[in-house]
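>> received
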Amino acid sequence: MKATFLILVSILFLTSCQSFLDVKPKESISDAVTITDKTSAETAVRGVYSALASGNYYGTNFQAIGYLSGDNVEWTGSQSIVQEFINHKVNADNGMISGVWIAIYQTINRANNVLAKVNDVADPALTTALKNQYLGEAYFVRALAYFDLARVWGGVPLITKPTVTPADNRGIARSSTAETYAQVLKDLDAAESLLPATTDRYRATQKTVWALKARYYLYQKDWVKAEEYASKLIGDATNYSLIKPYRTFFADTPGVRRNPFSRFSTTVPLKSTPIAGSGSRKLTVVRVSGHPIRLWSRYSTMPAWVETGAYSSPKTTKIAGTATSTTATLAQTLRTCFALPNNT
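>> returned
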């Protein structure tokens, strides 16, 4: 009886192990079935853009390593890896640097996969025009990635084929800065010939290539070529124009092309600082030309937003308000301070 029991337990154990080991991975698929039709090709291209917008690339950190070293922002945090940029003493083991490096090469690898596979897809729904568009977008993103690498690191290893195994890229030497920029131009030329001459705010087009080419030639100090490609866009007044005055770019002005991120924040929130030992507070009100003023407080007794009208000249003042101030009271205080009519 005991032997029979042990045999049954062994059979159950072996069966469960076999079932467990046969479970297919749910977070990844075989490389052989990644790009096989129109839908998977489109998904792959979207994956390229997703990598471009990742947190370590254009999402945050790639841009941060540039402006943190300048004087146009002030860092008030305590992270040492960020403080290294402020102090202009960036160590080789800085986590932001390695994160950006990896993110850019991940973007390149995704573009390489699109370039290697889309052309061979035999799906009637994936027309020649769509193939050209997808390939052109991949060439453009790869050009942008190497352009960014060249600007930060100079010459870098040039990888133009998909990475399948960890050993694929061993032994690839670092290219020179000139060779890296040459790869950028090569990819831009390929993208320009494949992409449609349309205007798209979300995907790369021929006009996007022209914009990057203008910047590329600026870095090469080829002023004639830079002017040539910049003029292609400046001359397209229907779709592109310079906003004047510059501050309008940040304003919420109806009918005016403005900051594409204005839908997230159309006005400037104002700071409130409590006064120790007092039931009142001081509200710092920033008056910006062309902007409606908005007053913000974290006090539960204060209305979340108080709005008044727009102004024609900058001014900064301080207003004392009580902890029980109402919307009407604060609005009237602002009108009095700035000599505004009652209908604002």
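>> The longest strand covers residues 280-287.
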